[in-house]
Amino acid sequence: MILLRQLLGDVLRRLRVRQGRTLREVSTLARVSLGYLSEVERGQKEASSELLASICGALGVPLSQVLREVSDQFALAELQAAPVLADMPEHERLPLSETVPGSIGDAVFPEVKDMVAA
After folding, report:
1. Whole-Å CA distances, 47 to 8, 33, 54, 55, 118
2. Exposed, middle or buried by CB within 10 Å (0-12, 13-18, 19+), for 31?
3. Which of 9, 57, 97, 106 is deepest in the core (most CB within 10 A)?
4. What are the tens digits of pLDDT across the range 2-23?
5. CA dihedral 60, 18, 73, 115 (to 10 degrees)
6. What span, in angstroms and rounded, lies between the C-alpha atoms of 110 and 22?
């Protein structure tokens, strides 16, 4: 199972290390304990939106950028975990409208249906 808190922690750690900053530096600027920040980076604690905003502020990175990176990583992890449709028997495949939440089928994403069918 893909855990959002682990992906978020990985992104935060990568940003901090890329900047050459220590946990202590960032925890002081973010006004969060060193131990708690460490647990967030290791994916052991769920960070509140307020805490994430504080950490991002300490790193000088917009929260939206962090969330975008997490979203991209999550999408990649989902793709790697998903069975390949070509290897799945036709009777086990869901119609496109059931596999894409919120879609209305062929009318919205005809090119996706063509790619899936290929």
Report:
1. 9, 12, 10, 10, 41
2. exposed
3. 9
4. 889 999 999 999 999 999 999 9
5. 100
6. 48
pTM (predicted TM-score): 0.69
pLDDT of 57-104, one tens digit each?
Answer: 999 999 999 999 999 999 998 888 876 555 656 665 555 444 444 433
Question: In one letter, which amino acid is 75?
Answer: A
- Residue 106 is given by DSSP the state G
Q: Which two tokens stand for residue 20?
A: 């050459």
Dig out the tokens for 54 from the structure: 């504080």
Classified as helix, coil or strand, 52 is: helix
**Three-state helix/strand/coil letters over 64-93:** HHHHHHHHHHHHHHHHHHCCCHHHCCHHHC
Write down the pLDDT at residue 69: 96
* Residue 78, both tokens: 């989902």
